[in-house]
Prior knowledge:
Elements: H1 8-32, H2 41-68, H3 80-110, E1 117-119, E2 123-125, H4 134-169, H5 173-177, H6 182-204, H7 213-219, E3 228-231, E4 237-244, E5 247-253, E6 256-261, E7 271-277, E8 281-282, H8 286-291, E9 305-317, E10 320-329, E11 332-345, E12 348-358, E13 379-390
Antiparallel strand pairs: 1-2, 3-6, 3-13, 4-5, 4-13, 5-8, 6-7, 7-9, 9-10, 10-11, 11-12, 12-13
Helix pairs in contact: 1-2, 1-6, 2-3, 2-6, 3-4
This protein binds protoporphyrin IX containing FE.
Amino acid sequence: MRGPQYSSVAIVLHWAIAILILGQIAGGLYMHNLPNASVIKFDLYQLHKSFGLSILILSLVRFGWRLAHRPPAMPDSMAVWEKLAARTVHWGFYALIILTPLAGWAMVSVSPLDIPTKYFGFLPVPHLPLGQGEAAEDLFAEAHEYLAFAILFLLAIHVGAALKHHFWDNDHVFRAMAPARIGHWAGIAGIIGAMLMGAVIYGITPPINADHPARRSVSVVGENENGNWSVDYDASSLKFIGEEKGRRFEGGFSEFNAKILFYPDNLEASSIAVTVSTGSAETGDEIRDSTVPGNEWFDTKDHPTATFVSNSIRSTGSGEYEADGVLTIKEYEKPITLVFLLEFDENAVKATGGADLIRTDYGLGADDSWLDDEAVSLKVRVAFEIHATRAGD
Ligand code: HEM
């Protein structure tokens, strides 16, 4: 028995959106958890935004189609509560598949980072007309995440009910939406294929926004035989030096990762990206060290890494250089300049240098009791000694 069917348009949109949303949630979680220094993070964010906006357009079309077309009637065998539950889940889905991408778009629009969006690399997408600010960005980021998880929650109920109808009740409910005809599959494949094609074109076209700091910072850090340096971590150190109650203290990070592309003759193409594991900080004092991972200091649970990403490097003569870049500790991103000396010895290099920073700019010692310069100095020096050898030569 074939029973009533949804229209071809409804079936194609249903399955195309379903597949795209599953990919979008998996991709969203994956990219969110990548370290900032990752070479692919920026591109994945751009793809996520392009696929997400496509889902938004398809969902709006689908919603419009649904308003204009009655779906097949539910079987008489269904109890009133079952029909009510089904309708609630279905309208809930419509709300979520429209609100989730809208929240993502709003988050990007209000972000003070002001990163532009280009639909699959070619069509500039304007920001939504909302005021920028960190608080608004956090709010929409939370909303985006919770809405995406709500989709998963409804999905579990929806799939469970569809299976029950098919195998237990043996009615037409699942078959009404099943993409049985080859034409349906062609339509679904067409929509998803067009978007994958967009992703491929995005991947092979030259970088967009090449002058945007966020773009520049991640895209230049790549594998290159001549300028790529590999760090000898055993011989290298990354320290922070300050004063506590007038007495000097020194701490270090035992875990950090540095990606260095350095061409002495082509500083434009050179870059430094450092990721530090904040949980690896040690100062040699047990009491002090027990407070460092807490949320007043590095908040290692929510912010396991801190990063420095350069956006320009210049020579100041006699082997001395300055690297302008962005230091991110917790949710604070600030421009900073590292000053360092390079000493070359054939294919090895030693870099010594550092920068001074004001810890409260990064929310370090966030509690009122630490705001006083007497307890722990506001100025902290970050000092490094990096030993590296030229890779691939
Ligand atoms: C139905 C469509 C969408 C779904 C299901 C979806 C899902 C997700 C998920 C699961 C995450 C990871 C959340 C987290 O761990 O914090 C995420 C992150 C993100 N999404 Fe979406 N997304 C969609 C559309 C969009 C759109 C249209 C945009 C922007 C135009 C967008 C921008 C972002 C950004 C910027 C992040 C990263 C947030 C962060 O790293 O803190 N998303 N998305």
